[in-house]
Amino acid sequence: MVPGRGWSRTAGNARSFVGNALGGVRGWSNLASWAVAGTLAYYLWVRPARQLQKEQQERAALASASDPYRYVEKRKPIPDPQDTGLIYGKKKDDPTKSDD
After folding, report:
1. 53/100: higher pLDDT
2. Could you give the C-alpha distances from 83 to 36, 77, 78, 94, in angstroms and in order?
3. Which of 7-16, 57-66, 68-77 has the lowest mean pLDDT?
4. Over 70: is that where the pLDDT of 94 sits?
5. CA 9 to CA 57: how far, in whole Å?
6. Which residues contact 64 (CB under 8 A, 6 or more apart)?
7. Does position 57 have pLDDT exceeding 70, yes or no?
8. How many Å apart are CA 82 and CA 65, to the nearest integer?
9. How many other CB atoms are there within 10 angstroms of residue 54's CB atom?
């Protein structure tokens, strides 16, 4: 028995299994059939799902734009001038000033 024969038989069995699982067709006809199947899947499932999602987003945008009771921020918020960020906190001492 040849020592490398087991690996080649296993690889051949795996290759034939994959080939049979893909329909048993080899070469350009296999590639062409996969291209046709992929194109059909795109136009029958993927493209309509994307168009539906886009239409739903457009409808939601129109609905939110036409809502008269929605909240609209009319001015920018005023930043807190304190160093500590607390309302009644002690301000930090300025490190550049020294008590010399």
Report:
1. 53
2. 66, 17, 15, 10
3. 68-77
4. no
5. 55
6. 70
7. yes
8. 37
9. 10
pLDDT in tens, 7-24: 878 887 887 887 777 666
Alpha helix locations (H) across the chain? 5-21, 28-41, 47-65
Phi-psi region of 92 (alpha: psi -120 to 50; beta: other; left: phi over 0): beta
Assigned token pair, 91:
């301000």
Q: What Cα–Cα distance (Å) separates residue 29 from each residue in 39, 58, 75, 76?
A: 15, 42, 65, 64
Q: Residue 97: which region, alpha, beta or left (left: phi > 0; alpha: psi -120 to 50)?
A: beta
Instruction: Give the pTM.
Output: 0.41
Three-state secondary structure call for residue 94: coil
Amino acid letter, 15: R
The residue type found at 81 is P
Cβ within 8 Å of residue 34, ≥6 positions away: 22
Fill in the amino acid letter for 16: S
Two structure tokens written together for 43: 């136009």
